[in-house]
Each structure stands twice: as structure tokens, then as C-alpha cells.
Amino acid sequence: MTRLSRSVLAQLPEGAAPDYDPAAHGVGILHLGAGAFHRAHQAAITDAALAASGGDWRIAGVSLRSADLAEALASQDGLFTLIERGAQGDRARVIGAIDRVIAARGAPEAVLGPMSDPAIRIVTLTVTEKAYGVDRGGPDADPAHPDVAADLESPAAPRGVLGLLVEGLRRRRAAGHVPFTVLCCDNLPENGALLRGGVVGFARRIDPDLADWIAREVAFPSSMVDRITPAATEATLALAARLTGFEDAAAIETEPFCQWVIEDRFPQGRPDWAAGGAIFARDVAPYERMKLRMLNGAHSLIAYAGFISGHALVRDAMADRKLAALARRHITAAAATLDPLPGIDLAAYGDELAARFANPAIAHETYQIAMDGSQKLPQRIFGPACDAQLAEQDLRPFAFATAAWARYCLGRGEAGGRYALRDPREAEIAAVVEAAGDDARALIAGLLRLPGLTPAELLDGAFEAQAAENLSNMLAQGMAAAIASEVA
Fold first, then answer.
1. Of the residues 281, 302, 324, which one is the last residue of a structural domain?
2. Residue 105 has what pLDDT?
3. Is 85 in a helix, a strand, or coil?
4. Are the beta carbons of 346 and 335 closer than 8 angstroms?
5. Model confidence over 431-476: pLDDT tens digits?
6. How far apart are CA 270 and CA 130, in angstroms?
7. Are 106 and 206 within one domain?
């Protein structure tokens, strides 16, 4: 079968090819972390913006880990197939917004060169929460993070996110170029301000004048992103070939739903992302809290309770009537911690979330969502739990999700098989598990007291007691029985 490339665009099925000539548009965006989510979300919306309004806004992607994607897209002129899978069937379209993907591992100059180019006006990021190396308490750079520590030693040859951004901005300043705008697209609270704190904090440790210039001149707008995008499989690639008639080594699948809320601060301009459905807002934080608490919080509950009870996929977990009931309860409890949001019906949003989770066409692995729990629970579970406690609302939904995470932290299934936690604090978690064993109270107490993890107001009270009670049930009865007991 012929491989997807620019030479075959005219042979694609009707409506599947980009509505513009990709080669006619220059590159204006550099994206760090060009994985499946970026391609299903920002790249797809940029593709729509180019079709509607044009501009030199194509994307140079950066793969920080593997060269596989860079090689696949190089052979396809940057093109890839995006498959939207929903109740109305499968729809495939080829995305032309990506010019190329750079393999950055061990090759910082391959990234810093484009960063220094004044044609790059925006740097966007989807690198996962753990990759930033930001101390959220500041916010500031975290010198204990491996990438941050290495880059502070060798700032001219960085490997991590903060180091790359600071060196790229330093070179722009030295060359007399205006700075690029930095747009974080990861699930972090107030992600623009958080990343700004990390970048400025890193710069201050090596060059205070540069730090002052960044703080004064560089825009860090916040954004909220939402689109469920499972990891691609061989079945994904086979489906892309059936739908388009061409082989595609970089095809991805996603749901029809897509949301992007962006703080509109782009001094050097931006694509017409609104043409792709993006919403521009003065304050992204309320949308961010809604998504983190309702969608991501429920997703974490489903991931931990579902994985331990034998559900490999989110859709399978939602087919479990009792676990689905707990997911709905969690969504409702999270919504109760939010202020009203203009234009958003929180109850309807919750109904839509449950339907998206249950989408039978999307194979989203619970184990994939379960990774990096120590980075995710503070904003997804503990933040809303604090607000619920202050408002004297029910804490059990958040305590149950915390207990499910603690059960997952044991690293063993109910049949005895082992699995890797895939968490940046895995060593600390393992030490707590070894000390506590299967003592539910000791395990909850130890995990919640990991430095910087849990707000003090959630300790030594109803939340901790309820989490320990739930974990005790999970250990004594098994997860399925604990879920049934909680529903009852």
C-alpha cells in the first residue's frame, strides 16, 4: 500500500484532505511534546485555522523522548491521519499543520536553532505534568528535578523544558529578536503563571538580568485543553488505511469532542484558532478548574478503581454499572465545588462527560491514565476536597478516589501480578508501601504525608479517616466488592 505523502493528497477520499496547500504556509509555532494529544488537539485546531484564514502558522514539533515519530512523519511530509470515533461512526481527515518533528534527545541544537528563529512566534507545550520541573509552591524552578539540575550545570546545552525555554529566550534577546510567546497546554492549574514562575526562577539562577527581561517581556498565557486521545495501536493504523486508502505510520484516533480555552495574550500574533472551535477568554482559571475537577478527577477515579477491578479500558469501566455510578457521583461532587460559569451548564457538562467516558469506539487504557498520580491528585482530588470540606459537603467521593490511588500504589493486582507505577515519586511511594504493608491507616497516612502532596487541612480529620476506611474495604474485600459497598 502507498504511504501517505503530499503527492497523494489529491487521491484522498472527498473531505479527507487539508483545505489548503500545506507547502504554501511557513512555520510560526514550535511545539514541545508532539505526541498523540498534541496532534489530535492543537495541530488539528491549527489545521482548521490555516484552512479558514491562512498565515505562516504551521508547526515544527519536537519529540523529547523518541525519534520514532520524527522518522514516521519525515517519510510522510509531516502529514498524518486523524480519526474521530463516535456514535455517528468513524471520520478520517489528514492534518497538514505539522511541517516536521525534530528528535531532540541528545540534540539540543536541533531545538534551539528553530527557537532562535524570529519566524517562530509561539512555543506551545504538551510534555505531561512531571516533565516541567516546576516547584508549584513558588512557583519556581525545582532544582531537585533531574532535568533542572542537569540544565543548571550546563545551561547552554539543555535537555529539559525550563532549560530549553530559557536558553532559547536568551539567544533571542542576544540577537535582538522579540521573544516568542510561551503557551502551556498541559493539565496544570493556572498553567501560564505556573510555567512563567518556573522559567523566570530558572533564569534567575543563571542570569538575573535575563530573568528580569523574561518577566517583563515574555507572555505566558494560560489555556485549558480537553480531548480524550488514547494511544494509537496497530488497529488504529489499519483503520486509517481502510478509511483513506493509504498507509500511515503516525495515524491517531480520538473522540469528536474537542475544547480549547485560551487567554488571549499573543504579542506577536496567533493563528485564527477560533475557526477551529477555540474559545478566547480573559480568565481561563474557572474553565480549568471545571475540567480538572470534573473530567480529570473522575478519570483518575475510573483509572485506579477500574484498573484494580480488572477493567483495562475506560469504556469497560463505565459498562460496570456500579463503578459508573461512582463516576457519576464524583462528577456531581466535583461540580458542587465550583462557582457558576457563564455559558456553561455544569449538570449538562457532567452528563456529556459520562457519555464520553462510555464511548464504545474509544479504547482509552485505565493504566495509561493511572500514571503520574502524585502529580495529578493535588489539583484533581485534593483541591476540590478542600473546597468541599470548607463548604461542609460530602467528602466520600474524594476519599474513595484517594483510597483507590493508594490501593494502586501497592503495585500488585488482586491476582498477585505486579505492575510499574510509572510515577516520578515512585521511590518515595515504595518506601511508604514497604513501611505500611497492608495496614490501611498507615498506608493512607504515609502517602498523604509525602512532602508537598496533600494540603494540611485534609490531614487528621474526616477525609483521611474515610480514605483509610475505604482502603481497608478494598484490601479486605477486593475492589469490586468495595465499589459495590460504596454504591450501597
1. 281
2. 86
3. strand
4. yes
5. 999 999 999 999 999 999 999 999 999 999 999 999 999 999 999 9
6. 27
7. yes
Q: Are residues 30 and 48 in the same domain?
A: yes
The residue type found at 239 is: L
Task: Supply the pLDDT for residue 246.
Answer: 98
Task: State the pLDDT confidence band at 355, using cuts at 50, 70 and 90.
Answer: very high
Q: Is residue 1 part of a domain?
A: no
Query: 83 and 216: one domain?
Result: yes
Nearest to 163 by CA among 195, 138, 199: 199
Banded pLDDT at 419 (limits 50, 70, 90): very high
- pLDDT 10s digits, 205-260: 999 999 999 999 999 999 999 999 999 999 999 999 999 999 999 999 999 999 99
67 is written with which cell numbers?
525519534
Do 411 and 333 share a structural domain?
yes
Say yes or no: 227 and 143 in one domain. yes
d(CA 254, CA 39): 10
CA distance 304 to 147: 28
Strand partners, 263: 281
CA distances from 218 to 14, 42, 155, 267 (A): 43, 21, 19, 9
Domain range holding 91? Answer: 6-281
pLDDT above 90: residue 204? yes
Query: What are the C-alpha distances in Å from 281 to residues 124, 153, 208, 219, 413?
Result: 18, 39, 32, 15, 44
Same domain, yes or no: 157 and 185: yes
Q: Which three cell numbers stand for residue 292?
A: 480538572
What single DSSP character describes residue 293? Answer: I
The number of distinct structural domains making up the chain is: 2
